[in-house]
Write a structure and sequence with these properties.
CATH topology of the largest domain: Nucleotidyltransferase, domain 5
Structural class: alpha/beta
Shape: globular
CATH architecture of the largest domain: 2-Layer Sandwich
Order of helices and strands: EEEHHEHEHEEEHHHHEHEH
Number of helices: 10
Bound molecules: 5'-O-[(R)-(carboxyoxy)(hydroxy)phosphoryl]adenosine, zinc ion
Strand order of the largest sheet: 3-2-1-4-5
CATH class of the largest domain: Alpha Beta
CATH superfamily of the largest domain: ATPase, nucleotide binding domain
Largest sheet: 5 strands, mixed
Helix content: 40-55%
Length: 333
């Protein structure tokens, strides 16, 4: 099945063609028009600018995705699009474009949940995970722990109570003078820092909960930097990045460990932009080995927002009979 898919929930406009069957999953094209350089000027995503940039890019990247896949719109079997969660104006651009295209070309329309899309990025790996499994989705807007019972039946068993994990990375990065979004740069800096240089607090979430919290940790780092600045002392950014990353990683592993115990699942998928973090990936690998569970990580190019992952999830939504109609709307949360 050839699926033309769209992603426009935040600051990347993406269009892909994926060729999906039960036996194989092939990315024929996956075009990403990033808006990062525009939003970097403001230190974060400006929703109105994001919507406009999606409008400007979506038609062009559709042509590119079809050309790279070497097919025409007629040859596709369905059109898929992220409809939730995300910035409403940004989502609406993708949803309305995909709706119009599907309607005019007489193709089925499939609305896809962005979080499920992130998890589906792992289906392009070899071996690919087969449900049931536990999924940890860590991105700039979301941090969720999910019991994936089938390809389409998801139960969220833990989530952040405040900042998303990527948001915490980006805010700490900003305070130590890195550009936006600073997650990837924090990753590089942490590699040359001493992770034991500072001891930052672990979140005060009760042991019987699978929820996360990153806001207290983020504030502790910001206070530490401000105190040093007030004293006229210089901060060692690499040590801060390394110590912060260790605190984040430890708190994630603690909750994943509890989730594995509670659900008895023997497979774990980690996905989303932050799952590209090399230190988190290393900690997850060590954790999986210790717990004797199988770990599935999407390849780095598929961790961030992209339309191929939306196409992958769309295949399973289609097989389950979850076909949308012309009334499909954007849903913020
Ligand atoms: O999944 P994504 O592309 O967009 C959302 O759905 O939010 O994730 C973007 C987030 C940003 O916060 C970015 O700083 C973070 O992922 N990120 C990283 C790394 N690469 C991207 N955070 C930590 N380490 C990385 N290597
Ligand atoms: Zn995302």
């Amino acid at each position: 099945m050839l699926i033309l898919s769209y992603e426009s929930s935040c600051d990347e406009t993406s269009c892909a063609v994926v060729e999906m069957s039960d036996e194989s999953r092939i990315i024929r094209s996956n075009i990403i028009a990033s808006q990062i350089s525009i939003h970097a000027l403001y230190g974060g995503v400006v929703p109105e600018i994001a919507s406009r940039a999606h409008c400007e890019a979506i038609s062009r990247i559709t042509d590119q995705a079809l050309a790279e896949a070497d097919i025409s719109l007629d040859e596709t079997d369905a059109v898929a699009v992220t409809y939730t969660p995300g910035l409403v104006g940004a989502l609406l651009v993708g949803v309305n474009f995909a709706k119009a295209l599907a309607y005019s070309a007489g193709k089925p329309l499939i609305g896809v949940d962005h979080i499920k899309g992130h998890v589906a990025a792992s289906y392009f790996g070899t071996p690919a995970p087969e449900p049931p499994f536990l999924a940890f989705v860590a991105s700039g807007g979301h941090t969720s722990l999910i019991d994936v019972k089938s390809y389409t039946d998801y139960e969220t068993i833990g989530r952040t109570r405040d900042d998303a994990i990527g948001e915490a990375f980006d805010k700490v990065a900003r305070v130590i003078g890195l550009g936006y979004p600073g997650g990837a740069e924090m990753d590089r800096l942490a590699s040359v820092g001493d992770q034991k240089a500072m001891k930052f607090p672990s979140p005060a979430i009760p042991d019987d909960s699978l929820d996360f919290s990153f806001s207290g940790l983020k504030t502790a780092v910001i206070n530490h930097v401000n105190t040093l600045n007030m004293k006229g002392q210089s901060c060692n950014n690499a040590d801060i990045a390394a110590s912060f990353t260790l605190a984040v990683t430890n708190s994630v592993i603690k909750k994943l460990s509890a989730a594995v115990e509670r659900t008895g699942r023997i497979k774990l998928v980690a996905a989303g932009g932050v799952s590209a973090n090399s230190h988190l990936r290393a900690a997850l690998k060590a954790f999986a080995k210790k717990k004797k569970i199988s770990l599935y990580l999407p390849e780095l190019s598929l961790c961030g927002d992209n339309a191929a992952m939306i196409g992958a999830q769309a295949y399973y939504e289609y097989k389950t009979g979850n076909i949308s109609d012309i009334c499909l709307n954007a849903v913020v949360n």
